[in-house]
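The methods section describes the discrete structure representation at length, but only in general terms. What matters is that the chain and its backbone geometry are given together, residue for residue. Nothing conveys this as quickly as seeing an actual entry. For illustration, here is how one protein appears when written out as sequence plus structure tokens:
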Amino acid sequence: MKFSKCIVTAAGFLFFCLVSYTASAAPDCPGAKYAGSGTCQSAGLDTHKGVCEPGQLYETLCDDDSRGYKTCSGPKKCQNSTNDCIYWDFSAGKPCPSGYINPDCKGGCGTKK
């Protein structure tokens, strides 16, 4: 009886490990496409929260891995306003660096807030 109890306990533990590994290996971006060989940060994206570009309907999510970074659309709608473009560097294709804005909504960032 003790032997069968050990077998059942070991099987349960192995099943738990398998389920935990499968869940942790699943990407945050289901159906994501590789977007580049750098990192999310180098592309102006964030691995911890979605990023909205001017005029974009849904946030962009990003995951880094050993081959580069992957992007996909997130579930949250972007709160676009007419002033969103002042925080976007159109020359670099990513958000303005912290403390800078793009007052004319064209080209790059350069004016400090």
